[in-house]
Amino acid sequence: MNAYRTIQETDDSIETLYEIQKSKFITHLRHVDTEEEARAFIQSMKKKYFDARHNCSAYVLGEGADKQKSNDDGEPGGTAGNPILEAIKKNELTNIVVVVTRYFGGIKLGAGGLIRAYSHAAVLGIEAATVLAMTPFQQLDVAVGYDLLATVEHWMRQHEIRSLEADYADNVSLHLLIEPAAIEHVQAELTDLTAGRASITPGDEQLIAIPAS
């Protein structure tokens, strides 16, 4: 299970606007998990902005960012789709689709100008999104008596341990989320902290979304 960066899922796409030399560049982007979702989003933008001269796009998919595609949609080759794709890659994002719609303002920007404009428009859109670091954590189930609960919870706060919702019955079952490399160390600390009275069971790994700094 590998860490990766993506953007937060939203009900609506993120929209930004960039204007240069009377041309308008409208950027839309959203989180997607499949190529079908990416293509459907691109088509929806083309339908929404049917009167625009260009709806250029790029997407990156997979935990390893192994599926990448861009489209210039009528702009000179390499001046639109690839700069959008490069903006995604420079931000180390995956499972994302970006569409930049251009309304031509009558002044030609030239190849270099187009590359800069599409790149900047894509970056503006990415900056408006909430970037998440999908990080592997292993669940560690810790069952303790109520007499030890305050001690363990204090230790968790000190070490900024993430956790899922606890279960309260005859004992308390805490479900900690620990970085896989630290599992053995945490188990040893908890055993010492509770004088061996805690029941500690390692669980499965899962990816947790953490806001990227």
From TrEMBL:
Q: What is this protein called?
A: YigZ family protein
Q: In this protein, which residues make up the domain named UPF0029? A: 142-197
The record's annotation in InterPro entries points to:
EFG_III/V, Impact, Impact_N, Impact_N_sf, Impact_YigZ-like, Ribosomal_Su5_D2-typ_SF, UPF0029_Impact_C, UPF0029_Impact_CS
The Swiss-Prot or TrEMBL record describes its family as follows: Belongs to the IMPACT family.
What residue ranges carry the coiled-coil annotation? none
Q: Which Gene3D superfamilies match?
A: 3.30.70.240, Impact, N-terminal domain (3.30.230.30)
GO cellular component terms given for this protein: cytoplasm
Cross-referenced Pfam families, in alphabetical order? DUF1949 (PF09186), Impact_N (PF01205)
Q: Where is the Impact N-terminal domain?
A: 21-122
The residues the entry assigns to the signal sequence are none
GO terms, biological process: regulation of translational initiation
Domain of life of the source: Bacteria
